[in-house]
Design brief:
The structure is a homotrimer of 286-residue chains. With 286 residues, chain A is an alpha/beta fold. Chain A is built from twelve helices and eight strands.
Chain lengths: 286, 286, 286
Amino acid sequence: MPFANDYKPTHFTLTETSPTLWRVTFDNPPVNVIGPDLMRDLKELLTELENNDTVKVVVFDSANPEFFLAHYDLAADPAIAEALPGTTGYAAWVDILVRLTKLPVVTISAIRGIARGAGSEFVLATDIRFASLEKAVLGQMEVGFTAVAGGGATARLSELVGRGRTFEIMLGGEDFNGELAERYGYVNRAIPDASFETFVDSYATRVSKWDRRVLVDIKSFVNELTLPVEDVFPRQSDAFWAAAARPEFQSINAQLFERGLQQNSHIERNLGAEMGRTFPKPVSES
Amino acid sequence: MPFANDYKPTHFTLTETSPTLWRVTFDNPPVNVIGPDLMRDLKELLTELENNDTVKVVVFDSANPEFFLAHYDLAADPAIAEALPGTTGYAAWVDILVRLTKLPVVTISAIRGIARGAGSEFVLATDIRFASLEKAVLGQMEVGFTAVAGGGATARLSELVGRGRTFEIMLGGEDFNGELAERYGYVNRAIPDASFETFVDSYATRVSKWDRRVLVDIKSFVNELTLPVEDVFPRQSDAFWAAAARPEFQSINAQLFERGLQQNSHIERNLGAEMGRTFPKPVSES
Amino acid sequence: MPFANDYKPTHFTLTETSPTLWRVTFDNPPVNVIGPDLMRDLKELLTELENNDTVKVVVFDSANPEFFLAHYDLAADPAIAEALPGTTGYAAWVDILVRLTKLPVVTISAIRGIARGAGSEFVLATDIRFASLEKAVLGQMEVGFTAVAGGGATARLSELVGRGRTFEIMLGGEDFNGELAERYGYVNRAIPDASFETFVDSYATRVSKWDRRVLVDIKSFVNELTLPVEDVFPRQSDAFWAAAARPEFQSINAQLFERGLQQNSHIERNLGAEMGRTFPKPVSES
């Protein structure tokens, strides 16, 4: 029973590989969007991990071989997620990511399939990112929606890949495959898919056997040295939500939904490229 | 008419690919040194871009296939450039680079040929650097002149390539080809020359179609997170000019001019290597 | 006579390649652990270099082809090293590394063989790290001893390799070969062993001929931009020594010594892997 309060997550599976190593497998068909239900599950997980003093490592992966986490759920009423309780006072998605970075637990993303937008932001907020060389796709396509990324991708990327590559990723909104993501430092390493599971399991198992206290101390020192000044996160979130309220964003969103957004569709699989062909319609047409 | 004030640049060509995408092609034969005339052109360009609210992306390239920007013009009277009007109060070259980083416009260097010294500093102050795999050469050879780089290369490199590689680049003064420059993060990416133009055009065109407001917001957030504390720039500039006034610098400069500096010469093409064979002459010989 | 005070180091050889280029060759058989005698030698070297105004470059290498610096001497009485005079007020190892980063001299690690734990911290505190592609091994295995690294590896790595890779290195405690160390930015470059010496000599010789004043200025500017806030070092050192006093650390240490630690043994050569098979014994067995 991983959750002390008997909470039953509905949008991911939680597997207790051992008392010190947990696996969270996202499972929100058809493409693993990040909606209010998954966010509720994540907030319950965070509360559990903030208080559990046994678990040492959590690996995040996906039940869907094509999608790790597609992106934020653009069809959901944002008020539902914002009404979920949090601990930071920030908007729901920021609350989740800021708490994730500070957990007294090592978090590892095992990225197979697509992680764009908020899905990319989720992996950027875990401690370590391992990617399948052939199957991982990462990107921040918010620029194509006329919005800045709302979950702090700009801040987390700039620490990992430097100013120039942050500009390229955030201003271009393109997809990055595993190989290029490694070259840029967007992920720790891209591992050939045939050995991906073995590699991740081996690393996670190893870490899960160390002394818990030293893992907490290392996280604390690295956090102190590398986390951005936190006030950047609510400001980027506010900028996202301001953009999302504008007609340009809504015009693009409506067009993409007509073409299959949030389905396992051509447009969702190729969203990096498709964004560059989708623009706000003039007000008279919209 | 890109310039609202009808200014006619003489040392670069400005092409309006579209109202939102401009191309600046450096053209100051024989090797594109950065002298007072080119600096005047750049300052006029900055003023235009600071006030133009249509253009979104500017690509910088070179009309000379061997030289992107060779380096600062070491034959010119520095007083001419320093007399040009600026907005920051800094020395002319610092004024240009600091304003370049803050433009409400995306700037991309398309580097074919040599970009050393101030030429390297120019590309480091643009948002994104794409380099020809076979034809790009970057370097900061000021150490060989007995000077620190005056336009902030030390600060901009350390954000991109980290402490160890910044030391190697700045203390060695050697040339870096496109492949190694990418490996170090000195450039975003090195692209095979055969597809270089297509790659750069495709990226720049894509960005030039996004909402202008979001591009400005992204630049603002990345600048806040990654620009160095600004007072380092005037201090590095002062250190450069102090060195340039010393007899050691002038002895090396004189020797290099005798051997063809600022011409399309063996020494200018191989300046990284040649610096290591050129030392100040004893005072009695100079 | 490199040492002005005629000090004779016993655990490294100091070679004056030229008045401006020195070579320090670690030689503390069987595996170059960092014990009180080597630390005394290093402190004398630092004092010499802090006061010598001729030498410009110091290259650090090893007389042992398999070990650059194995790690801290875990058999020595720490009180001996702590009793050595220092200038910073910090614990002995921190005193050495902090002073090393601030020397008015360029420091280059020429890494062949193993540099783990404090050995890795030593190379991280030099300005530039060149590694043999085939023969270098780096790692921070302190986590396996239930301790954080005490000499600031966390801080120095995060500046070089970014947050995600710092977590992977520090939390995993695994070995990194030259190729992967370069990809991560842990070293500047991995050079094929056949050309390693030529490469390092060529770079070091070149730098040793530049104007000394400009080298000092460059170091000063890069230090200002890239050194961490210094108070992190004593706190990490304290955390290491607190862990070293605990029974878990001592149990692992005892087990490893029984199996050949600090000898040229299987376990010392494969310490990254072996750590993952060695855990504290329950108190009743220890």
